[in-house]
Structure formats: C-alpha cells, structure tokens
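Trying the structure run again after the queue cleared.
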Amino acid sequence: MELSAVLTPTPEGGYVAYNPETGTTTQGETLEEAIKNLQEATELYLEEFPLSSYIRPLLTSFHVPDRA
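Done. Tokens:
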C-alpha cells in the first residue's frame, strides 16, 4: 500500500513527518530518518486500526497574503 508523507522542517533542526491517511505523526533528524520512523509508526497503527477504505488524499497548495 502506498501512503502519503508530509515532511516539515523544524526550526531547531530535523523534520516532522505526518501521514494524512492515518493521522500518524513522528519526527527524525534527517528526511530519511523521518520517513523511516513514519513508516514504522504507520505500520504499528495499521496493525491495530486497519483502513476500512483507502482513498488517497489530494495534495495542493494555496496562497495567504503576508500581513507584514
């Protein structure tokens, strides 16, 4: 099963990794570590809470004006 990963750099270094299909979130010092940790966390989640249906989310972006 191919799932999504949203990776966000943190100000203190490293990355937060989030899977929107399951809501699992983790972190890692590198992109590779964050993805590996997310994969492990998501596998554990799915063992306990299998997905009853699988719909891949649509990822897009939008603009919010700066308020400086």
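Residues 6-48 form a domain with the Double Stranded RNA Binding Domain fold (CATH 3.30.160.250). Worth checking whether this holds up in the mutant runs.
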